[in-house]
Amino acid sequence: MVDNGCRTWMKLVYRYRVKSLTGLLNKQARAVNFVWNYCNDRQKDALRFGRRWHTGFDLIKLTTGCSKELGLHSGTVNDVCQQYARSRSQSHRPYLRYRGRKTLGWVPLKGRELKREGNAFRFAGNTFRVFYSRALPEGKITDGTNFSRDRCGNWFLNIVLEVPAPPARLPVRGVGIDLGLKDLATLSDGSRIAAPQIYRASEAALAVAQRARKKKRVAVLHAKIANRRRHYLHTCTSAIVGAFDYIVVGNINAAALARTSMAKSVYDVGWSSFRAQLAYKAVKHGAWFEEVNESFTTQICSNCGAVPDSRPKGIADLGIREWRCCDCGAVHDRDINAALNILRRGRATLAVGIPDR
Ligand SMILES: [Zn+2]
């Protein structure tokens, strides 16, 4: 969210599949790769000769005047230079990988260069028709907007739009969410969200295609499975943001768990996309979102706040689903208890009091 004086703004990304001029985009993507690799070469030169490393601004100066020859918009060339410098410094590496045939296509553009034209978009003298799957609201198209190609070769236009943020809701209905493996999430109100299905039919077809070495078919099937997963997560997160004003999630870390014996099931569940979707949807709908430290949330009794001896401990006791607090006698479902503790932790940091559930 960007604070702009009296009004709060937020950025939303709208993604449209492009249905025309994809050949042109393929060509431009190759030119973008050329610029990127040129930046990488200049960076390697700087390393070799012990010169000062190039900033985005330096790279823009070095590439001035090449846009016409490459068939790119000058804004695109500038964006590639800036993105190269940004990615390089974020990666903490002296130089980056070259972009080549296997890299997913990418053509960035300056937001102000993209104009609406009915249900199509005009950029650099060309009209790009898209599948106008949802209406683009009024708002300023900003930098970060780009064309990108997925593994199946489809082009998408990703529009970054700046729109006024909705007023924050009163945090009345709160929910704590415990992320897990058996269920994707357990809510403090007792409801559960099942882990996304493994789509057996698709998996079998995938295996057949892989054995036959049909690369294109494999890519299509992978995309299909990913789409179904994404759709499932979107449905769940939308429902949660619709039902609750205040959402607290534990900061459970998939990378850390993946090092344990449960590695295989962890990679699949999609906690990070789940959390990311909740975070941006909360902003979009004026709800509150918070991530809290989830350590010991399974061991503390949510009724009396004690850490009783009868609690489930560590990974060895993961199988225990239900336990009884030996201090106050409350009987807990392991995951709901954790979700309640997470909600309590979130509440403690919220200035406004929320009535108890
Ligand atoms: Zn207790």
Provide an overview of this structure.
The strands form four sheets. Strands 1, 2, 3, 7, 8 and 9 form a six-stranded antiparallel sheet that branches. 39% of the residues lie in helices and 21% in strands. Helix 1 crosses helix 4 (74-91), helix 5 runs antiparallel to helix 6 (215-243) and helix 6 packs across helix 9. The two termini are 30 Å apart. It has 357 residues and is an alpha+beta fold. The chain has two domains: 2-164, no CATH class; 167-357, Nucleotidyltransferase, domain 5 (2-Layer Sandwich). The structure holds zinc ion. Zinc ion binds at residues 301, 303-304, 306, 308, 325, 327-328, 330.
CATH class of the largest domain: Alpha Beta
Give the count of helical stretches: 10
- Domain count, please report it: 2
| Small-molecule binders | zinc ion
Radius of gyration: 25 Å
The amount of helix comes to: 25-40%
Structural class based on helices, strands and sheet pairing: alpha+beta
Low-confidence stretches: 1-5, 353-357
Summarize the structure.
By secondary structure, the protein is α+β, with helices and mostly antiparallel strands. Helices cover 39% and strands 21% of the residues.
Task: Give descriptors for this structure.
6-stranded antiparallel beta sheet, 39% helix, 2 domains, alpha+beta, binds zinc ion, Nucleotidyltransferase, domain 5, elongated, 5-stranded mixed beta sheet, 357 residues
Topology record:
Blueprint: E1 2-4, E2 7-17, H1 22-48, H2 56-63, H3 67-70, H4 74-91, E3 106-108, E4 115-117, E5 120-123, E6 126-129, E7 140-141, E8 146-149, E9 155-164, E10 174-179, E11 183-187, E12 192-194, H5 200-211, H6 215-243, E13 246-250, H7 254-257, H8 263-269, H9 271-284, E14 288-292, E15 322-324, E16 331-333, H10 334-349
Parallel strand pairs: 10-13, 13-14
Antiparallel strand pairs: 1-2, 2-9, 3-8, 4-5, 5-6, 7-9, 8-9, 10-11, 11-12, 15-16
Helix pairs in contact: 1-4, 2-4, 5-6, 6-9
The protein binds zinc ion (ZN).
Zinc ion (ZN) is lined by residues 301, 303-304, 306, 308, 325, 327-328, 330.
